Amino acid sequence: MSKSLLNIQRSKRLPVLLLLGLLTAPLAGAETLQQAWDVALSVNHSLKAVGETTAAAALQLEAAKAAQLPGLSVEAGYTALDNAPETKTNFGQFPVGEKNNLSYKALVTLPLYTSGRINSSINAADAALRASRTQQSSKIQDLKLKVAKAFVAVLRTTGGLEVANSHVASLKAHARDVENIHKQGMVSRNDLLAAQVSLADAEHEAIRAENILDITKSAFNRLMGRALNQIVVLDEILPKSFAEPLEILTSQALKQRHELLAQQDQIRAVRHQAASIRAETGPQVALSGGYGYQENQYQVHEGQWSVNLRAQWKLFDGGVIRNKASATERQAAALQEQYDDLVSNITLQVRQYWLDVQETRKRIRVTEKAITQAEENLKVNRDLYENGLSTNTEVLDAETLRTRSQNNHSNAIYDAVLATLNLKRAMGEL
Question: In terms of CB atoms within 10 Å, which of 118, 350, 370, 401 comes out highest?
């Protein structure tokens, strides 16, 4: 083999080595996935909205607790009558009030016994707050998975562009060789045309790959809250393995998935709401006291202090409260059905992503061997073609196999990364 052809063969291996190197060595100054998560969590508007919802739930709990504290009300008014109030007796009419008068009152009320209505409301608000906080944790994991997928998409398309450019460089070298051999009259013009057409197709695919890479970088920048055209340099991610068997992973997921925990708290909240509504049919006892003043010159004491102990018990309301409580309990039953369905869905998710992890491991091993075999196959076919023992089509096919093996290996690696991330999310550990 000529020295120039040997140099070409070495240059063709360089992109593959660079690609494999990228998968094992982090780039200096490259953004890591953890750094991307930190940025996204700080700028994402949807996550901030969930935080506001949690803050609102916390205030609802404070409002429910405040219902058991004393309440103070103040009122004032001015009354104007067309006639002064008078009383009629056998001895004539006597005034008992002024035609125009001012009055005001301050009243303190303290609930003493509510048949559990206030306590149930507090328990409902507390469970709703826990559910909101847990849902916030779930939304954080959803956002992290979304960022991770965008992160991997950039790495995948970057590798795809490198492979496409390597394919173009290899076909350019082959087209030059065919052109030189054609000038010597050793091959037909059809070989030259076939090599040139294959090169044009490779350049077309490289242009598409470059455009796809730009799109994935723009999508990643949007999640980061940055300008869409900002330069993106990312650190590589290696797939991780899970030593635990599927049964243990499934058990862990059912114990720690935030969606399940939030659903349980939502069920508790609705059941406490039903208890609070039903408690309205029980005795309600409250203590009130205060000071009232009414302007009246005919009254000895215009201002009065008062204390009042009041008891109320709704014995019959036509079934309004009972039906409201029953409707709320049906809502809890509906949430329970959703919980059972979610358990089944999470079990399926863990199994699916665990199987994906096993599959991608095998694909990585197979494609690693395929790259070496494809490189050797291309080398042999080019040597044979140079010596007139192989056809141009066989060389082009060998180059296509080499490119395909590189893409398959890169996709297997990033599919394995995604399978790992999906499994961690399914377990609630992302």
Answer: 350
Residue 206: both structure tokens together: 């490289």
Q: For the chain, give the longest Cα–Cα distance.
A: 146
202-251 pLDDT tens trace:
999 999 999 999 999 999 999 999 999 999 999 999 888 777 899 999 99
Residue 358 has a CB neighbour count (10 Å cut-off) of 14
SS3 94: strand
pLDDT at 2: 36
- Tell me whether residue 59 is exposed, middle or buried, using C-beta atoms within 10 angstroms of its C-beta: 0 to 12, 13 to 18, 19 or more: exposed
Both structure tokens of 7: 């140099």
Q: Is pLDDT at 14 greater than 50 in this prediction?
A: no
* Main-chain dihedrals φ then ψ at residue 7, nearest 5 degrees: -65, -35
What is the pLDDT, as a whole number, of residue 214? 97
Q: What is the mean pLDDT of the chain?
A: 89
Transcribe 28-93 into DSSP letters: TTPBPHHHHHHHHHHH-HHHHHHHHHHHHHHHHHHHHHHTTS-EEEEEEEEEE-SS--EEEETTEE
pTM exceeds 0.85, yes or no: no
- b/e string for 206-234 if b means 16 or more Cβ within 10 A? beebeebbeebbbebbebbeeeeeeebeb
- Rounded to whole angstroms, the Cα distance separating 368 from 44 reads 39
Phi, psi of 287 (to 5 degrees): -110, 130
User: Which pLDDT does position 3 carry in this prediction?
Assistant: 36
- Tell me, rounded to whole angstroms, the distance of Cα 182 from its chain centroid: 60
| Ranges of each domain in the chain | 3-68+128-282+321-426
Contact (CB, 8 A) for 315 and 283: no
The pLDDT value recorded for residue 182 is 85
Are 24 and 189 contacting, i.e. CB atoms less than 8 angstroms apart? no
Cα–Cα distance, 99 to 118 (Å, whole number): 44
Give the C-alpha separation, 13 to 361, whole Å. 24
**Whole-angstrom distance, CA of residue 210 vs CA of residue 160:** 9
pLDDT digits (tens, 9 = 90+) for 148-177: 999 999 999 999 999 999 999 999 999 998
For 3-68+128-282+321-426, CATH gives 1.20.1600.10
